[in-house]
Specification:
InterPro entries: DTB_synth_BioD, P-loop_NTPase. The protein contains nine helices and eleven strands. It is α/β, with parallel strands linked by helices. The chain has a single domain, classed as Rossmann fold, CATH 3.40.50. The protein is globular. The chain starts with a strand and ends with a helix. The structure holds adenosine-5'-triphosphate (ATP) and magnesium ion. The site of adenosine-5'-triphosphate has 16 residues, from helix 1.
Length: 227
């Protein structure tokens, strides 16, 4: 049974998949057995045969050289680019948490270091019918620590601090934060980093620039973020 780390973002499209792919690549290049899992993906694009392509899993597979069947990497794939709870409603395919937990456990058993990507930000409804489930409930249930991906630019102090405050209110351990689309030497972005650290005490553990193909982080440090 391997260790796992949950990746959340300060919002959707913030770069969770992009950075996750670099994390898994980094682990694998160091000879460690890194894997990937995502519970629910919406906004999947169909191929010419109409089969929905789980873009996030395909990206991590390609960048990190995982070579795994995408069926193992994502449990629920929806076409509609809406929150999973709504995509599930539209498609009459509710997210079964027991199935997600079983798929997660299998993925964790297959790899020593499993990186699980969330959907959207930390407050992402997975189910809102006779059951009410938000993504943070699942993270708590799985007992995972969280690494937050935030954009380095304008507005990030607010969204990063709110994400951290919410995780703390839910007693979810925070392993650190990664700044994405960072421009070295940018006065505002460096101040954003300093302000988030000062306001929360959470450390920025890596900086990813536009187009980066490697994650600049010590692999032993990275390894220790998994529990
Ligand atoms: N550092 C970067 N350099 C270049 N492109 C990036 C970078 N970060 C993100 N992107 C691009 O921005 C888009 C959104 O990023 P990504 O898919 O990783 O977001 P996400 O948080 O995983 O979104 P979702 O909530 O849909 O899972 C993608 O096209 C991705 O390739
Ligand atoms: Mg993604």
């Amino acid at each position: 049974m391997g260790k796992a780390l949950f990746i959340t973002g300060t919002g959707t499209d913030i770069g969770k998949t992009y950075v996750t792919a670099l994390i898994v690549k980094k682990l694998r290049e160091a000879g460690l057995d890194g894997g990937y899992y995502k519970a629910a993906l919406s906004g999947a694009i169909p191929d010419s045969a109409g089969k929905l392509l789980p873009g996030d899993a395909l990206c991590v597979n390609r960048v990190a050289g995982l070579g795994e069947q995408t069926e193992h990497l994502v449990t629920y794939v929806y076409r509609d680019a809406v929150s999973p709870h709504l995509a599930a409603k539209i498609n009459h395919l509710p997210i079964d948490l027991d199935r997600v937990k079983a798929d997660f456990a299998r993925a964790k058993a297959r790899h020593d270091y499993l990186t699980m990507e969330g959907s959207g930000g930390i407050i992402c409804p997975l189910r809102w019918d006779e059951q009410h489930v938000i993504l943070d409930d699942l993270v708590k249930d799985l007992g995972l620590g969280v690494l937050i991906i935030a954009d380095a630019g304008l507005g990030t102090i607010n969204s990063a601090v709110l994400t951290i405050e919410h995780l703390r209110a839910r007693d979810i351990p925070i392993r650190g934060l990664i700044f994405n689309k960072y421009v070295p030497g940018n006065l505002m972005q460096d101040d954003n980093a300093a302000m988030i650290e000062a306001l929360t005490g959470v450390k920025i553990v890596a900086y990813v620039k536009e187009g980066d193909t490697d994650l600049d982080i010590d692999v032993d440090f990275l390894k220790n973020l998994y529990a």
